[in-house]
Amino acid sequence: MRLSHSLAPVSAAVVLLIALPYEARPYARGGTGEWHARVVDGPPHARVTDGRRASREPFGAECRTGVDGSRVVAYCHNPYADTDRVRLHIECERWWDIDTDGPPAEAGPARTVRLSGRCWQEVRSTWVSHERRR
């Protein structure tokens, strides 16, 4: 069976799109720039805007989190000129264990801050939120 000349390019495009790994697809990109020592990750969190038009200037510290047993440590480095107010959030595995939202820390330009926290037992997920200092 021969495909017509008008269907061949469309068929080739569909086959290539299906063959691409999920991470390589354009709509799968994004994320928080976090890595984890153990696969402990919550749902992806979108940055919430206050309704104003988003700035075109780059912003946001790059944060790396690690989990060791019940302890969590995050290092956030801000390579940009604006100060980023970062906060560590920890969700614990046990229902009786208290989830924590750490105090905000200001990651100034070219600065690295260390955030830490813990659960009594296992950690379910952890993430860092960002806020532009006004």
Question: Percent of residues in helical segments?
Answer: under 10%
User: Total helix count?
Assistant: 1
Estimate what percentage of residues fall within beta strands. 35-45%
User: What does the largest sheet look like?
Assistant: 4 strands, antiparallel
CATH topology of the domain at 31-45 and 59-132: Immunoglobulin-like
Topology order in helix (H) and strand (E) letters = HEEEEEEE
Give the N-terminus to C-terminus distance in angstroms.
65 Å
- What is the SS-derived class? mainly beta
- Could you tell me the number of beta strands? 7
Supply Rg: 20 Å
Shape: flat
Poorly predicted spans: 22-46
The appropriate CATH architecture of the domain at 31-45 and 59-132 is: Sandwich
Overall pLDDT score: 76
Question: What's the CATH class label of the domain at 31-45 and 59-132?
Answer: Mainly Beta
List the helices and strands and how they pair.
Layout: H1 8-19, E1 62-68, E2 71-78, E3 84-92, E4 100-101, E5 105-107, E6 111-118, E7 123-132
Antiparallel strand pairs: 1-2, 2-6, 3-4, 3-5, 3-7
Q: What structural keywords apply?
A:
Immunoglobulin-like, 35% strand, four-stranded antiparallel β-sheet, 134 residues, single chain, mainly beta
Structure description:
The structure is a single chain. The protein has 134 residues and is mainly beta. The chain has a domain of 89 residues: Immunoglobulin-like (Sandwich). The protein has one helix and seven strands, in the order αβββββββ. Strands 3, 4, 5 and 7 form a four-stranded antiparallel β-sheet that branches. Strands 1-2-6 form a three-stranded antiparallel β-sheet, with no helix packed on it. Strand 1 and strand 2 form a beta hairpin.
